[in-house]
Specification:
Helices cover 38% and strands 21% of the residues. By secondary structure, the protein is an alpha/beta fold.
Length: 494
């Protein structure tokens, strides 16, 4: 019998895999099992997450996160009686945990939204210029980046401890893994050199940071130990391998796209839209810098070259105001209503700084329209479909312009566009994007970070252990194709 591509990818070891996805609003623990030779992905445990104010500072409730993740692993162990082969963790970047020599936590980690970095950022620029930071790292200058947080710690005289670990790597170390800094999250710190992909001594010295507090850099897909402690006593979890996947959730989401070749781009679409393409080499020319593109680490030694574009934040802010005025819209309902109204006259510049601020979004949008010499829209709930239509058309136009810049900077001849993340389900926006870009648009998984997490695990476990070559990326893509289909078909809460 001729083997299908899916049959050719059947694993040597049919034990289950666990993927943890840490989110700033919710954390999820998912289980991948092999049922009758097919992958089945189940969301086993989900719990809400949010920073809390402690003595005037925004911090994460680390004990709550730890307890929720431990509970998720216990649930996985109860379901996967065949045993768990490996566990991997991805999550949002930039935030970190300080630990002592024994790995004990010194304090709850700060949230990137805490305003202490406002002053720290400006003071740091007196030590090293923004232009030099950009030259050294190729990373978008954002005050939320780990560098500014670490510098704020130093200015406040907070104890350094033995090491700081970004949150996904901290969770892995807590479960028994070596203390490491996986490259995709490390690049988001603004402390890694653009070309050598090593900790940048010049930045550490300028910020007066102790280089020894940074963990060893490892590539995505590195096995860092085995589960230990009380959880390892559960029969299903014995000998489970701990893997640092693409620990940055955006890098995992891009790894979850089942595409090969050099003619495609991506949009990771949610509150923000990350619009870009994978590159073999970083691109940090003056034009890319002036347009605020970033060069983040990706699987297989590649580069996530993309630009932040305002996303579903715009519609969510409008919906919050309309709800306060007595009309709550469901997203799907609003999208359907937006399709029925006439095409808007004019479009928004969605990245105007005023539209990045919270509150009064319909009024902010109308203010821009008035400046453009256009008629304002009805700002109350009855005007919601027209506002939604305007926002979706405007996002599509902006995506097209950014993708033109991606093609210009990268030299790629783009033909395909993959949309992943929560907003990938918005078929109206996807259709408008196809019209505006002229590209063939494919809807990827809304849970692409989980898909990418599992795909990296399988690629490593099944033999593609050279994590710095394109071979790993190609193998990950094959697994992502299988797992994406399994997730779209079977992603249910246990």
């Amino acid at each position: 019998m001729r083997k299908t591509p899916e049959m050719a990818l059947l694993p040597e070891d049919a034990r289950a895999l666990v993927a943890v996805d840490l989110g700033a609003e919710s954390c999820r623990v998912s289980l991948l099992r092999w049922i009758d030779g097919k992958a089945r992905i189940t969301l086993v445990h989900r719990f809400a997450n949010a920073p809390r104010e402690v003595e005037g500072k925004l911090r994460w409730d680390l004990a709550m996160i730890e307890a929720g993740l431990d509970e998720g692993l216990r649930k996985c162990a109860a379901i996967a009686t065949e045993g768990v082969r490996s566990i991997a963790v991805d999550g949002w970047g930039v935030d970190y945990v300080r630990v002592d020599a024994e790995g004990r936590v010194l304090a709850d980690p700060f949230c990137y939204r805490d305003e202490r970095t406002v002053g720290a950022e400006q003071l740091l620029y007196k030590k090293i210029s923004p232009a030099r930071l950009r030259e050294l790292t190729g990373i978008q200058l954002l005050r939320i980046n780990t560098l500014y947080q670490l510098y704020a710690d130093r200015l406040e005289g907070l104890p350094e401890g033995r090491q700081w670990l970004n949150l996904p790597e901290y969770i892995l170390s807590r479960w028994g893994g070596a203390r490491v800094a996986e490259l995709t999250t490390a690049t988001h710190t603004q402390l890694v050199g653009l070309y050598d992909r090593q900790w940048c001594q010049e930045i550490f010295e300028a910020a007066q940071l102790d280089r020894s507090c940074a963990a060893e850099l490892v590539p995505p897909g590195t096995e860092i130990g085995r589960l230990s402690g009380p959880l390892a006593e559960l029969p299903a979890l014995r000998n489970a391998v701990l893997i640092a996947p693409a620990c940055h959730d955006t890098a995992s989401a891009i790894a979850g796209i089942p595409a090969t070749g050099d003619d495609w781009a991506y949009i990771s679409s949610g509150t923000w839209s990350l619009v870009g393409a994978l590159l073999g080499q970083p691109q940090n020319a003056a034009a890319a810098e002036s347009e605020n593109f970033t060069n983040l680490g990706a699987v297989g030694g590649l580069i996530c070259f993309h630009k932040n574009v305002n996303g579903m934040w715009l519609i969510k802010q409008c919906m919050d105001q309309w709800a306060a005025e007595g009309r709550s819209w469901d997203v799907a309902e609003l999208v359907a209503a937006a399709e029925k109204v006439a095409r808007p006259v004019g479009v928004l510049y969605v990245d105007e700084p005023d539209l990045l601020l919270a509150g009064g979004m319909p009024q902010r949008i109308n203010a821009q329209r008035v400046r453009q010499g256009l008629e304002p829209l009805e700002e109350g709930p009855e005007g919601a479909p027209a506002f939604a239509s305007l926002i979706f058309h405007s996002l599509a136009v902006r995506y097209a312009k950014v993708l033109d810049m991606v093609a210009l900077h990268s030299g790629k001849k783009l033909k395909r566009l993959f949309v992943v993340g929560g907003a990938s389900r918005n078929d109206f926006l996807n259709r408008l994007t196809a019209e505006a870009t002229g590209l063939e648009v494919f809807r990827g998984s809304a849970e692409s970070s989980t898909v990418g997490n599992f795909a990296v695990q399988m690629a490593v476990l099944e033999g593609s252990r050279d994590a710095v070559t394109g071979a790993l990326a190609e193998r990950v893509s094959l697994w992502a194709g299988m797992f994406g289909a399994a997730l779209e078909r079977d992603f249910v809460e246990a």
